[in-house]
Prior knowledge:
The protein is α+β, with helices and mostly antiparallel strands. It is about 25% helix and about 15% strand. Strands 4-1-5 form a three-stranded antiparallel sheet, with no helix packed on it. It has a two-stranded antiparallel ribbon with strand order 2-3.
Amino acid sequence: MKKEAVTFWVINISKMNVSLSDLNLTIKAYNSVNLMDTKHYQYKIEQLKKSVESGSIFKKRDKIIVRKVTPEVLIANIAITRETFMPTRERSLLSIKEKNYEELNVSDEEFAKDNADTADADTKPMIQKV
Length: 130
């Protein structure tokens, strides 16, 4: 029979890191932390309850929230194959089509004739002095 581990989850809902001075701990922005995790922390449940009642968690209750439910961990089931892991340049997902527009096939002489009036406008100032 396995004992159910005691958890004490807090979440930082602000966009800044929050320091809990009585616990000597900084919780990063938008992060959930289990403070009863024995691999990382050495807190007693009494110490955490005291912090919630009158300590730094109480003072920063607008930024730090005590979770009642353990957050769910989402695991993506993506099959990693050679093609997905290392893309090659032999094949592309995009198909490149070359389109030819007839109205854009204009010789240089025809283009110069059509735009001769704009050449003079380029030399004049944009704002005329009155």
